[in-house]
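Help needed: design a sequence for this.
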């Protein structure tokens, strides 16, 4: 299953690991809880329930726990934004379930055999899953390189190798500068080797060519600006009284 966010959130991204681990832990816990309920052969629609791992449960709740646990495990296997969205959605359902079942405690409508500890667990687990699922996604002050921020701004995904290439280029440049500095010291002390002298001459030629290129580009830019000014004056000549005033000013200066 591929989504638009997959290009922003590759499998080795730290956020992806958080989503997968969180979904896997919650899913495993729910599968264990539901499996123990079936192992104890709980009544399917009992409103009283029996204690399983400190929580009240019946057959229906065990079945729901197993199904939700399998969905979370599947989301953890898929990973990426799918695990984030599924975990956050199930977290929201847990919160709603806790509030809804709080309203039907000790009534015939308590089809999941909830007790107050179940309500507390649903609220706490729901908030925890929401936190994991939305971590690094809707928090305040997200960095500009966050994949969700870049996707919302319609910016391209980060090249995961760009930082490595930049660091490698920086290391190479620092090595070159260090070698040049050693050659300069050796030349100043009169003990430069032929290789160091050749390196310094090559560096001097490179710098001279760079200065010439920059000077040429600056002159070309000035010529283009002057040509554009002349063209503008040709298309939009100044008023006649300004031309006469300018001519008088030139004659007076001469």
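Sure. Designed sequence:
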């Amino acid at each position: 299953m591929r989504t638009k966010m997959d290009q922003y959130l590759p499998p080795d991204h730290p956020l992806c690991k958080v989503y997968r681990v969180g979904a896997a832990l919650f899913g495993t816990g729910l599968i264990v809880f539901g499996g123990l309920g079936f192992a104890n052969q709980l009544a399917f629609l009992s409103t009283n329930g029996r204690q399983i791992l400190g929580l009240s449960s019946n057959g229906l709740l065990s079945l729901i726990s197993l199904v939700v646990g399998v969905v979370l495990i599947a989301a953890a296997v898929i990973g990426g934004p799918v695990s984030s969205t599924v975990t956050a959605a199930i977290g929201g359902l847990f919160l709603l379930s806790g509030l809804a079942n709080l309203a039907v405690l000790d009534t015939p409508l308590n089809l999941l055999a909830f007790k107050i500890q179940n309500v507390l667990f649903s609220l706490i687990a729901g908030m925890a899953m929401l936190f994991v699922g939305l971590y690094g996604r809707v928090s305040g002050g997200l960095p500009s390189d966050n994949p969700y921020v870049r996707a919302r701004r319609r910016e391209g995904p980060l090249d995961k190798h760009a930082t490595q290439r930049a660091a490698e280029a920086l290391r190479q440049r620092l090595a070159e500068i260090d070698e040049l500095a050693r050659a300069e010291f050796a030349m100043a002390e009169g003990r430069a080797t032929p290789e160091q002298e050749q390196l310094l001459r090559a560096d001097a030629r490179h710098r001279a060519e760079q200065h010439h290129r920059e000077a040429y580009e600056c002159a070309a830019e000035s010529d283009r600006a002057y040509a554009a000014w002349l063209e503008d004056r040709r298309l939009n000549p100044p008023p006649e009284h300004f031309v006469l005033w300018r001519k008088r000013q030139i004659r007076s200066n001469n």
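Residues 142 and 149 are 7 Å apart (CA to CA).
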